[in-house]
Amino acid sequence: MGLFEYIFDYMYYMYNIVQNMGTSYSQTRINCGHIVVVGGGYAGANLAYKLKDRADITIISDTPYFFHSLAALRASVEKGFAKKITIPLKDIFGDKLKVGKVTGIDTNTKTISLENGESVKYDVLVLATGSNGVLPCQTEPKTTPEEVHTVYDTYVDKVAAARNIVIVGGGPVGVEMAGELGTDFKDKSITLIHANDNLVSPHYTAKNRKDVQKILEQMGVTVILGDKVTNLEQLNKDGATTVETSGGKQIPTDLVIPCIGLTTRRDAYESSLGDKMDSFGRLKVDEYFNVIGCEDVFAIGDCCNTDEPKMALNGMEHAKCIVANFANKTSGKPLKKYNAGFIMMGISIGRNVGFGQKGTSSTIPGFIIKMLKSRDLMTGKTWSDFGLKQPK
């Protein structure tokens, strides 16, 4: 394949990924009764958006906004950016949205219980509850988008005031955090500590992991691999402290940024479907996302136990598969099995550098990731894919 064809192939591939993130499908009517989607993140919101003009749906979210976590790290270094990462769900779904916390599910009566005492009946239930994280990767659920904006603008001030910063965790999030800091704050001492011997993901090739490390080091980031922070729970995350590692290092710092420890959000189903969970709190599903042993109950995104990385892109692929199967069920066609696997991962290393891999070995040219992700972390695209205009 020549260079032009190679570039075109990846640009077309990436274009189709971002084109389908929130696309509303307006084909034939889906007749599955009342479909209730629990969760307003990448999997849940994209599923509900694809269904809203084709089926009788309700989407239940414990926040009134979609949180664009892919861009949360940019909001932690740029004041005012946070308004671009909270998209009002009411503007997307109107009266199909119900804001509330699910506390119980009765699969016998097909009833969902909310914390406020309300109950919702379903014919088909799709759980897409996502994952929990800590600042700056995520924030606790808030009542309004404005509260989220305040949290991140305050965090920007903490970053600006710190001279020495330690990032704990060198997976995709830790690498992207280091890239944001290395781009916007060249005068700071930035150290990234990762317990594993290689950055990013085991799905990345050895060469690509080394190339990512080289990019960070060229930015001035000190990368420490194969060493684990031993006092993370005891550290003062917002002020002067000393990070200790299993290798005997003691690193004075003004700010510790944890980029590890995402956990499954299981509050909605733990009391009702506890026997359907794996050891990580994820629901056990078959190749159609049907929760094992639960008729008409499905799980997608981070809360299901598909054998693949838990990424926004995979959650959106789950949503596409569910929509296709609901349509197939309506028309009497065979259902489509989902083939779990590593699709691709594009990493933004600051505003001007990108790195990506498709499948298990094919490197995506950095300028494509820069163009499609690094520049604005897909905020504009995400708003427009939900039919809305991004705020300035």
Automatic annotation (TrEMBL):
<feature type="domain" description="FAD/NAD(P)-binding">
    <location>
        <begin position="34"/>
        <end position="318"/>
    </location>
</feature>
<dbReference type="GO" id="GO:0005737">
    <property type="term" value="C:cytoplasm"/>
</dbReference>
<comment type="similarity">
    <text>Belongs to the FAD-dependent oxidoreductase family.</text>
</comment>
<dbReference type="Pfam" id="PF07992">
    <property type="entry name" value="Pyr_redox_2"/>
</dbReference>
<dbReference type="GO" id="GO:0050660">
    <property type="term" value="F:flavin adenine dinucleotide binding"/>
</dbReference>
<keyword id="KW-0285">Flavoprotein</keyword>
<dbReference type="InterPro" id="IPR023753">
    <property type="entry name" value="FAD/NAD-binding_dom"/>
</dbReference>
<keyword id="KW-0274">FAD</keyword>
<keyword id="KW-0560">Oxidoreductase</keyword>
<dbReference type="InterPro" id="IPR036188">
    <property type="entry name" value="FAD/NAD-bd_sf"/>
</dbReference>
<comment type="function">
    <text>Putative FAD-dependent oxidoreductase.</text>
</comment>
<protein>
    <recommendedName>
        <fullName>Ferroptosis suppressor protein 1</fullName>
    </recommendedName>
</protein>
<dbReference type="GO" id="GO:0004174">
    <property type="term" value="F:electron-transferring-flavoprotein dehydrogenase activity"/>
</dbReference>
